[in-house]
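Q: I have two molecules that I believe assemble together. Could you output structure tokens for the complex as a whole instead of separate predictions?
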Amino acid sequence: MIPSGIAGATELLGLARGAFHDDADALAVLDELDARLAGPLRIAVAGMVKAGKSTLLNAIIGEEIAPTDAGECTRIVTWYRFGHTPRITLYPLTGEPKGLPVTRVDGRLVFTLGEVRPEEVERLVVDWPAASLRDLTLIDTPGIASLSQEVSARSTAFLLPEDSPAAADAVIYLMRHLHASDVRFLESFKDTAAGQSGTVNALAVLSRADEIGAGRIDSLISAAVIAERYSKDQNLRPLALGVVPVAGLLAQSSRTMRQSDVEALQLLASMDRNSRERLMLSVDRFIRSDGPGQLDPETKSSLVSRFGLFGIRLGVALIRGGTNNPTDLAHELARRSGLGQLLDTVEHLFQTRAEALKARAAVVGVEALVRGAPKERAAPVEAALERLQAGAHEFRELKLLADLRTGGVGLGPSASAEAERLVGGRGSSPALRLGLARDADDRLISETARDSLQRWRLAAENPLTEPRAVEACRVVMRSCEGMMAPTAAVR
Amino acid sequence: MAETVRMTTLVEQGIAVVGERNDLRRRLENTLERLRDPSVRVIVVGEFKQGKSQLINAMVNAPVCPVDDDIATTVPTVVRQGDPASAVVLVPRHGGSVTESDGGPEAPVERQSIGLDELADYVSEKGNPGNARNIVAAEVSLPRKLLAGGLTMVDSPGVGGLGSSHTLTTLTALPSAHAMVFVSDASQEYTEPEIRFLHQALRISPNVLCVLSKTDLYPSWRQIADLDKGHLEAVAPGIPLFPVSSELRLQAARLQDTELNDESGFPALISHLRTNIVGEAARLQRRSVAHDVLSVTEHLRLALQSELGALENPEGTPHMIAGLKAAKEDADALRKRSARWQITLNDGIGDLIADMEYDLKDRLRRIQREAETAIDQGDPGPAWEQFTSWLEQSTAAAVSDTFVWTNERAQWLARQVAVHFSEDEVALPTLQVSDTGGVLDPVADIQQMEDGRMGAVQKILIGMRGSYGGVLMFGLLTGLFGLALINPLSVGAGLMLGRKAYREEQEARLKRRQAEAKMLVRKQVDDVVFQVGKQLKDRLRMVQRATRDHFTDIAEEHHRSLTESVAAAQKAAATYAVERDMRIKEIRNQLRVVDALSSGARQLLDRSPDPQPTPSTVPAG
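A: Yes, here they are, computed for all two components at once.
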């Protein structure tokens, strides 16, 4: 029996450690891979310049720590990971890592690089005591298509390394509209990250979704329609698992909402509709005009820069609709910003298969190591590698998923969609795979899985089914069996 | 408007006076032709979803261009003056394809009248997804004071999207535009693709102004505007930036609120368009009309005055005839192939063709090498599709570079020829040419480029503009928009192929595939060199012909005027006294008409102050 994903990868790393026991460089690589297997999933946040990467990252973390600005801001690849005490470490391209002082202005971190120039820095690592970072390491990257070529190049080099496994297990790709350069980037990311086991591990986010509808109150509905269209776009389908609209600014601010914000929104809500609409014709007017009440221009300016006109309109509408409790208001705003949906999707698509994704990173790492090694040393590791890749069901699922999304395997459209769901294309938990409600009980899961298994077995035995499709059927059957197994044991 | 009428009358009077001089008549008829189409085309470009259509709507205060949260515009829409308001769409006639090889402005199109409210069904992504109706363009006419000066706004589909058909349609319109409005919203500073686009566009249309849209939505638009100004300064000095809010302008119109209108930023933009773009175009128009008429009057006066001189002062006649003959010989020399300007032109074109061929081959050879290296490193099979699109784009970029470069060089050459022609040009002897301003001020005129004398360059430009066909069009378009916007990561061919695994593939089959792939690449590059080389060569030959014809015409005019003057003077010497007095009276009358014409033209000229001459630029390479 071949051990599955993470166990198999650990075993593989052990084997490689034996084979390369006298090679210090190789051991260092293996240590890094070990740490990666043990650590939380690494998700990179990427996108064109000013797509709102840092803002979204803050929203996910739940604190405004990553610096953001109206101009281009993030210039260095920055890791945010869990740590009990706040700490910032700078890893230069050459030389020893060094600690940086943790300074915050308005809550946001300020990276004082000292004498080091940004182009000499490989990355910054921020350890931060935020609960949301416990099982997720987030990586902020500089924007693609930046005006300063080196900044873009830095992101490209990090996300699309030439000769090593990508440092991120998955990527959340932010776009404002689908530009050709977005597609180009995702294509490249798929090519590198996937390596030979080929899979789709990017999630596209339609960021700044509130601006799509020019800040109108129905902006997100309209953004959802567009996201839906993009998710069906044949250029994007093979590259991203889904498209989620998120109003990043609102998401960030609602998670860090202050009492003063709520008071200001309540004052606005108490105005009569016409004068409020006149006030909100433009941000300039909003800040400049008098009132309502004692609101001074500074407060209003901060309010509009943190929430945007859309956030204010939505907040006012919610308050007028009766949501007066600050906590409820913050929750509702966060939910409507699309952040909840994004976090759910990340959970379904990436977290539940974190093991497979991490194991794959290890496999790709070992593969790169073996490729450059002498034959007699590499041979046993290579054999184990081959076995793991061919045998581990998780990898075969990932591969089938990629095949299904990239061009199909000779199944009909409805069968393809079902296969995609069953191998975990919409989320990896059994209920999601079987298309059941999230709280379905074990018996229902087991029964549905058995039905599916039966259907797919018939399909596999049908002499008219193409060989390629039969192969796919087998993988799907194995997935169904996997879902039955734990529930059977319970019984 | 009134001025156009005045100019038209002046030119028509001129045509009435020229009589049998067909060459002069032809010249004035051309002038009239230009006067009849006063439109100043301003094309609005930018990446998609920047608020281009809304900008035009706000400007004319009517929802003429459909606006949507999703990508809206698929077809360029022309908005111009017209009463009553109406709309037409241009569709290719049956059997005629406009986009492909046979392209060009003469491609058969049909005008279909549609209702204003139906427009969205034709030009928007929703009503006409992917331009399935195959519409070339839409035209909307509106009665608006703003548009009365001939200002024509062209709404273009956004560039940078996935549908390359959008970018194709956008660029075809760009070269013929008088000015370009580049729209980018206030959500962020310029991105690299945008700046790259600006750089390229400046080479085609020098009149660029930038608009920062949606200032109502973004609190930090002032900061963005400052950043953008910095970027623009780096691209080229003096590009103006106008922050505007279309929403506020539309609201202002609804509420009749002038304060709101001022706040929208539109007054500044509109006044710039009026004075700097439309005003400038009108000024150039006036200058060139004045020049045409003036030069015609000089020619007419020459014959009349020679005859008059001979009649009034018979003893001086032989001397005058000798002078005229000498001038005529000089004018003849200009017509000969050995004239300096002819030599400059012929040599220049020869060099240019050789350089162009070398340039094209060199660029393509580099692409071929890169492709072959990439093929050697991996298996071309699995990534062939991506690979071919990479190849297409790189060749397209190379072709467009060659094209733009050739275009610049050709213009420069035409200017050079003009300089040589003017230097050797014979001053018409008996005339007081010195007070006719621009006629003998060739260098300044040439730098202005739009002057009557520079008709050649205009013709060349028009010729080149009108012929983006086939490969060339594709090349230029994707080169400018496609590559600039598609490829910011500069994903090389190597990355595309090298990533694909090929270990399982058997060595022999792989080798064969690689060889096949290389052969295909070579064939493709050969085809491109052949086709594009031919097209560019034809283009340059056309430049040569246009330039030669233009200057030969001028030389012919000189020749004919001088010949007629000599004949008139000789005839006068043999005239009887009685007839002489009659003839003098007649000539005096005719001269008065000519003088009235020329003073009319001079008035026109006086009212347009001479602009600061800009130094002529010589393209690199």
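A: One point stands out. The two ends of chain B are 44 Å apart (CA to CA).
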